[in-house]
């Protein structure tokens, strides 16, 4: 567990609900290493655009990828972007509607992305993205061809500037509301995997690999 | 089911993977009415900020709320924002790494938010947000006091300008790769509820209401 602090900047210091701020870097890594997709924010023609996409992490670098034809990725390297990963952990049901809330862990990363051109880093970045979504596949599926690599953009964002915010635990009601005849507590929420669905064109005799079956 | 088309604007017409675009308004409603949180994009000091938050929908208006003290909400009414709701439905495991993908449904809404000041609309917006996260609670939990209402900002965004993108089904591999000895298919992903956890301070004898127990 890294205990290197997150580097506070004006916009990553939480002003509200400060008790929810986490300032150790390991909390950032944990959130990023548990997610499947992020929400990437870019500014296009002066207005924000928020796009769900895959991502991966190597040390203090976050990688996202896309087609070289995607407008949002083409615009990105010249300007700052924001990458947010959120885990919704529960719905907090208080006695008062005003105190309803959610339990969550979220990481927000700011940075000017770097277009990755070094072939080794590009491959490593793609591997990190693949391993995040589909651990084990890098070693079993067909690797990218040079043509496929050329059709793929990989962007790297430093994790230097990031904030982490979490909420956990039960509701916090006003003192006088604890006497109310209202159920209160937390409804846990989590992401779950179903049973793998084989491709109809799967060749007979190929079993579901353990790394996929084991997630279901 | 509404068959009113989504109104195409330059930025909501998909240029890539057009087969994934949905152009009927009912697809937008379905995605919004199934989500628990959205990712709200705002521009702060010229750079994007992406924040997870609750939301609700009434007809063609989307509502988000927050403390009147939140900087991102204070900045929002003067500028365009982006609201994205994403459902991750599966991890698409192709024979080639290049064709790995995800099944998903996502809605992206653009608009200049309106600060809701009309008391009736403000209450209706809060109710829509509450019902999205915690159906049934509006009728059982304590309603907001005037002081609590004053401490809460509600923003309304028109659903006029929105795009919907979905992917479903199995992998699409290159012809020559179907002969490979690699398992291919989809690993379904869904959001699931756990067993309700009562607040330690819950008064004895209050059972879990059916609307909460029924989701687990």
Automatic annotation (TrEMBL), chains A, B:
Residues 194-216 are annotated as: Disordered. InterPro entries: Pyridox_Oxase-rel, Split_barrel_FMN-bd. This is Pyridoxamine 5'-phosphate oxidase family protein. PANTHER family: 5-NITROIMIDAZOLE ANTIBIOTICS RESISTANCE PROTEIN, NIMA-FAMILY-RELATED PROTEIN-RELATED, FLAVIN-NUCLEOTIDE-BINDING PROTEIN.
